[in-house]
Amino acid sequence: DASKYATAIAYAADLVRESGVRIDSLNVGGGFPVAYADDVEGVCSVEDCVAEIKAALSFEGWADMPLLSEPGRILVARGGSLVARVELRKDDTLYINDGIYGGLFDACSWLGLKYPVKGITCDREFDGILQDYRMAGPTCDSLDMMEGPFTLPHDIGMGDWVVFENTGAYSVAMRSNFNGFGHADTVCVYNGRKSLT
After folding, report:
1. Catalytic, out of 44, 122, 140, 188
2. pLDDT band for position 186 (50/70/90)?
3. Is the CA virtual torsion 44, 111, 85, 125 positive or negative?
4. E strand or H helix at 16, and its extent?
5. Residue 36: phi, psi to the nearest 5?
6. Within 10 Å of residue 96's Cβ, how many Cβ atoms?
7. How far is residue 106's CA from residue 169's CA, in Å, rounded to a whole number?
8. For residue range 12-69, what is the model confidence (pLDDT) as tens digits?
9. Is the whole-model pTM more than 0.90?
């Protein structure tokens, strides 16, 4: 909701006026959104956010105020994908070899980010029928759950792969070695050529 930037700037302006302290710059934060699986239509654009910021700064008499910003997610989210292997399937739960202690922290049940996903199989064709799944990570920790729902082929199973898209923000940075499940190969693709690191 781009209007949240205007609300935050109004709060900051009230605090500055009340304190009597002069400021020489304002950090407008980050959080510039990226569309994930369920919110493609509902996500405001970065242009909408900037328009709200400019209007609020003008309203507060800060049109010439130097700004700082932390636009990380909007810059890097689309720059990464995470690929996990399906180790087991039980009904509508896929047990995968990565999870919230690995590269999928943002998908944990209490944050609920729903990455766009697709299935990959190496030995057959999927039949095209889709189904919603939840996923469990490999750590045997009850928190290592991603409720989704993640929509994938209904015939996905053990040995198939799940590609989580838009994981460029925080996925690698949040990875831990909890219960010994921290290792992940990184493949960098440059103009169609790849290198394994």
Report:
1. 140
2. confident
3. negative
4. helix 3-19
5. -105, -165
6. 27
7. 9
8. 999 999 999 999 999 998 778 887 766 656 678 889 999 999 999 999 999 999 999 9
9. no
Give percent of the chain with pLDDT exceeding 70.
94
Token code pair at residue 111: 């944050």
Asked about 140 being catalytic, the answer comes back as yes
* Rounded-to-integer distance, Cα 184 and Cα 98, Å: 9
Give dist(CA 161, CA 176) in Å, integer.
21
- Which of 103, 108, 69, 110 is closest to 172 using CA atoms? 103
Evaluate whether 86 touches 161 at the Cβ level (below 8 Å): yes
Direct distance between the N- and C-terminal alpha carbons of the chain, in angstroms, rounded to an integer? 38
Range list of β-strands (E), the chain: 26-30, 67-70, 82-90, 93-96, 117-120, 130-136, 145-153, 161-164, 187-190, 193-196
